[in-house]
C-alpha cells in the first residue's frame, strides 16, 4: 500500500508535538482493520526514531467520529479460534507499543469512540473528549457475543476500578462526555472548538504515571472486597443472561485473571478467550443481527422517492398515541398535532411526553430549555385544527373497523389531498381499512410496538393499492423516529403478531394442563425470551388478546383457535397489569402469581414437564408459523423475519432469530420435532409444506 493511501498520517508542530491523524480512505466512519497492522507499525517505527518529540496527539480526520470500532467483517474470515486469537494478540501488541512511547500520548476524541477505538484511546496516556452530543465512549463487544480483545478488559479496570469497568464491559453501555469525565475514563471534556488545543497542551505536560499495581485499582487490594465485587457482578449477570451468553462469563473470568496474575498474563487470557468467542454460535448469531440491521438502514421500502414531511398528525392520545407523538417530536424532530375526542386524551399524551423528557432532564441528557422546546413542538385538541397542513397522519385509535373507517373519512375531509393515512393497527387487514378511502393509495399500515419509545421495530404494511411513494415516505419517517422498519404483507396479524399468537396459545394450553405459571414463565426466560408468555399476556392486556385471536381464527383458520381462558379472566375483571390483576397480582411492591387464578381456571398446579421441553413446545409453534409467513410472502426474506422477531417480541438474539435457529437445529430436525409434537399434542403442530420441502431437499434458509 502506498503511503498516501494509509489511514494513519503523521505531522509535526514546531513546539515538539507530533500529530497522528486517523482517516480511513473512502469511508464515512473510521474503523480498525487487520490490513492496518503494517501502517501502524510504520508510524510507530517513525515515532521511535525521532529524538525531539515532546508529546503526541492522536485524532481523527473525520468530522464526526473518532473510531467507531474494529471492522467486524474481518472476524468472519477467521476459520479457527487460533486465527481470531492472533488478530487480538496483534492489536494488543501495537497498543502496547503505543503505550510504551517515551513521551505523553493524548487521544483527542470527538464522536463515537467505541470498541477497538476505545481500546486505542485507553492505550494512550491521557484522553480528552468533546462535550458534543455525538461523543460516545464504550466497549460494546458483549453485544456481539465477544469481549474487548485489544487490552480493554485489562486497561479499563486499572483506570476506573473494577466495579465501574465491569458495569461498562458487561452491558456494553456507551457513556456521554460528562459521565466519562465523572468516571475518569477521560481527563477532560471540553467544547469541540478547543478540543485539539487542549489536547496539545496536555501532550506537552509530563507523561502521567500508570497505575498497574493491584492495590491501586481493586478495593484497596482487599481480597475479600475484590471477590465480593465479582460475586455480585456474576450474580447480577446470570440473572440477566441465564447462562445463554458465554461472553459475559468470559469477561468476568478474564478481568479477574488479570487482577490476580498481572497485566501480561491477563492480556494472553483475553486474546485466548476472544478467539474462542469469535467461533461461538452465539457470537455468529449476534454478528448476523448487526450486519442485517446495518444493511436495512440503506433500504427505502420501495423504488419511489419519499415525499417531504414537515408536520405529523396523531389520532388518539392513549398510550400508543403518546408514544408515537414522542418519537416523532423528540427523535424525528417534526412538530406534532394530536387529536382526541376528549381533552383528557390530549392531557394524557402531553403528560406522557413530559414524563419521558423530564426523566432525560434529570439524567442531564437534555437541559430544561431543550425540554421546553420539545414540549412546544407538540400540540393538540379535540377538533381538526391544524390538520390541513400535516403530511402524515398516524392513527392510533381502538381496534374497531367502523371507527377506523370514520377516521379515514374525517382525515380525507380535513387534510390535504396528498396526506398519508398511516394506521397503527395490530390485527385488522389494511385493505379493509382502505375500503372507506377516496384515495386508497395514501393508506398504509404502520404498526408500532408498546412501549413505542423503547421498542425498535415498526411493521410497514402496504395493501395492494398503496402507492410506492407512500411506502417510501413512511419507511423514511420510521427511520427518523429511530425505528427499524420491515415491510410486511397485508394479512391478519401481519408478521410479528401472527407468529406470536400460536406461541401464546400454546403457553395457555400448557397452563391448562396444570403446569405452574412461574414454571412456564421461567422456562421461556431460560430459553432466552426477555419475559415469559404469561407475564407478556398480563403486560399486553388480556382484553387485547381476546380481541386479536378471533380475527386471526376468522382470517387464518382453526390452528389459531386457543383454549378458552380469555373470557373467564375478563369476566373476573382480570385485564392484566393495567387492572392490577391478571395471572399475577400487581398491588404490592413485588408482583406475585395470583393463586386464585388456578381455581378460576379449574386447574391443580403441578410441575410435571421439564422447563426445556415446555420452551421447545411453545417455540415450535412460532417457528412453524414463521416459515409459513415466508412461504406466503408476508415477509420478504428470512433476514426480515429474524429481525422482526428479535426486535418485535424479543426472540432470543443469541439464536439469531427463528430462521437462523431453524438452520442451526437443521430443517430436518425441526420437521421431526414438529411431527413428534403433533403425535403427542395434536394436528396444530403439523409442519408446514415449506419446511417439509426444505427438509427433503436438504436446504437451509441462509446459504452457508
From TrEMBL:
This is Fatty acid oxidation complex subunit alpha. The lineage of its organism: Bacteria, Pseudomonadati, Pseudomonadota, Gammaproteobacteria, Vibrionales. Catalyzes the formation of a hydroxyacyl-CoA by addition of water on enoyl-CoA. Also exhibits 3-hydroxyacyl-CoA epimerase and 3-hydroxyacyl-CoA dehydrogenase activities. Its EC number is 4.2.1.17, 5.1.2.3, 1.1.1.35. It is found in: Cytoplasm. It comes from Photobacterium alginatilyticum. SUPFAM superfamilies: 6-phosphogluconate dehydrogenase C-terminal domain-like (SSF48179), ClpP/crotonase (SSF52096), NAD(P)-binding Rossmann-fold domains (SSF51735). InterPro entries: 3-OHacyl-CoA_DH_CS (IPR006180), 3-OHacyl-CoA_DH_NAD-bd (IPR006176), 3HC_DH_C (IPR006108), 6-PGluconate_DH-like_C_sf (IPR008927), ClpP/crotonase-like_dom_sf (IPR029045), Enoyl-CoA_hydra/iso (IPR001753), FA_oxidation_alpha_subunit (IPR050136), FadJ (IPR012802). Pathway: Lipid metabolism; fatty acid beta-oxidation. The record marks 119, 141 as: Important for catalytic activity.
